[in-house]
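Appendix B, example 12.
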Amino acid sequence: MLDLLHGDRFVDAAPAQVYATLLDEGQYLCSVRTMYRLLAANDEVRERRQQRRHPTYSKPELLATGPNQVWSWDITKLKGPVKGTWLCLYVILDIYSRAVVGWTVAYRESAALAERLIRQTVRKQGITRDRLTLHADRGAAMKAKAVIELLADLGVTRSHSRPQQSNDNPFSEAQFKTLKYHHTFPDRFGSIQDAQAFCRAFFGWYNTEHRHSGLALMTPHQVHYGDTAAICAARQAVLNEGHRRHPERFVRKPPEAPAPPAAVWLNPPAEPKAS
């Protein structure tokens, strides 16, 4: 059978073609499956064309139990003064506190600008070596050699989203939505100076006044700088007084002031299925 398959007549034919041809000539030597088995035993079954092999990317699973452990950063486009023109807003976000720890506005995406922003933000936050993980998607600036070398020099672990998986960077995406849905966000910016002035005011409000729903309605800076225990205690005292004065309003149990999450996951591990 192998001699027949190797012969000039059938050397370029698939086993199914050989099988059908022989049947039409009144011959049955073996099944198609047997032909494949014989060829596989001799390492002769493979894709004839060279095809691109896609690497397997693991899902990033990052845990933060305090500020300055995991940062997420991304770049979003802002409409410029004329249709078809854009500005680039770079934002670095702490996933535990949701605080914007660094940002800049530029005319373009640039590895040099990203490198400068990361270096300044790490210095400003006093990050020590082997303490921080920086997560981003797979944009050109995020994967640039200059940025990779900078993170290695600073002792910062880098993490990347899987290709075409926008939900691997949810904290940055959610922050951009808050930015662009804010009632003061303009349809266009008249200049880069206008965009910088807007972002300066917005991020000041966002960090110090915005009561974040994911932080038990505390501000990012309150969580980032460790004020949560005192705030929870003060809120609980107010709730206790309200319960003392009007216990009939609380049918099930006395009110409790919620606290921000003690741990924040970027892609929590899947729970094992029950057997």
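Residues 62-210 form a domain with the Nucleotidyltransferase; domain 5 fold (CATH 3.30.420.10). The first helix runs from residue 2 to 6.
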